[in-house]
Amino acid sequence: TDARALIEIYNDTQSDLAEVHSQFATGVLNLEQRAWAEQLSLRIYFELSRKMSTKNRFHRPILDELSERLADKFFVNFSLFQSLPDAWGIDQVFPVLPLSGLGDAEERRAVMLDITCDS
């Protein structure tokens, strides 16, 4: 597959997924159909991330987006820390570090998402 074809597949997948979300919002598609389409798009994104090259300057921004999109998401409850960020400082990033595995090599990208509503 040539470099431009991979970009076209990425753009088509983005467009198709946006259409799926639109049809779900209007009741045309049900939740099971939306989930199936999202799983298919994730498989396509994964294959694209394997086939695209960081050496190709047109692939680099897409690979950055795919890295974000394909990152594992962990939903956590940080209500334990609800008063600490206030003392830490306004508009500052509150660092959270693991207690183990700090010396292990990174294998996958992950993002922690806070489910608390302490704000």
UniProtKB/TrEMBL annotation:
GO terms for molecular function: arginine decarboxylase activity. It comes from the Bacteria. Its cofactor is pyridoxal 5'-phosphate. This is Arginine decarboxylase. It is an enzyme of class 4 (lyase). Pfam families: Arg_decarb_HB. One of its GO terms (biological process) is spermidine biosynthetic process. Coiled coil: none annotated. Residues 2-66 form the Arginine decarboxylase helical bundle domain. Keywords: Lyase, Pyridoxal phosphate. It comes from Vibrio parahaemolyticus. InterPro entries: Arg_decarb_HB (IPR040634), Arg_decrbxlase (IPR002985). The keyword Lyase applies. Its EC number is 4.1.1.19.
